[in-house]
Amino acid sequence: MKKVFKIILSLIIIFFGAIYILVNTVLKENYNISDIKNNLTKETINKKSQELLLVNDQNGLGKDYIPEGLTIPNIKFSSNSANEEKHVAGIMAKPLEKLVKAAKDEGVTLLGNSAYRSYKSQEKVYNNRVKSQGRKLADSYVAKPGFSEHQTGLCIDITNKDKYFVEGTKEADWLAKNCYKFGFIIRYPKGKKTSTGIDYEPWHIRYVGKEAAKYIYDNKITLEDYLNK
Ligand SMILES: [Zn+2]
User: Fold this and answer.
1) SS3 of 158, please?
2) Catalytic residue (choose from 84, 201, 211, 224)
3) What does the pLDDT look like over 85-99, one tens digit per residue?
């Protein structure tokens, strides 16, 4: 009888021990999961604020602003692209590669022309224009340093083999119709100068993430409209 009692007691101890270990493990896992979730949320917020960064003639960037994770995407560039302007912000590299590949799969060849431009480069371009054409004309054609969206590394001017990227060409029409699927918008659409401050540019696409891009495309609005500024 004593032996049976001992066995039962041992079994009870083992049973509760097992439950104790199990509960502890589950609690620990839950704790880790909620920790991971918190981190993801922070990352998502950081990504969103990058994706929706607004630069226009009212909103500029500092001299020292350099996009995160600048990298050269794996796409073909036009022969006259300088090394600096082949770079894009890290978050935009993969979506851009996917966009260019999807176009190629449909028989449309898109070439990168000009993406990132540093504050210094923009300053050079701007000052040269001022020298050659005067400040007034320069201001109407070239963004002042800090006020070009190209400093964000989130946009790129696309071209084609003929370096003639205008509305009605196969390439420009494909881009206008499909870029939102990859998180891009035509940043300066036709007839929206009052909103963007810039004339129609079919070649200039801006990465804003898929959600914003689809909304902007579906509602035929601009990034300024979207951000309500
Ligand atoms: Zn551009």
Assistant:
1) strand
2) 201
3) 999 999 999 999 999
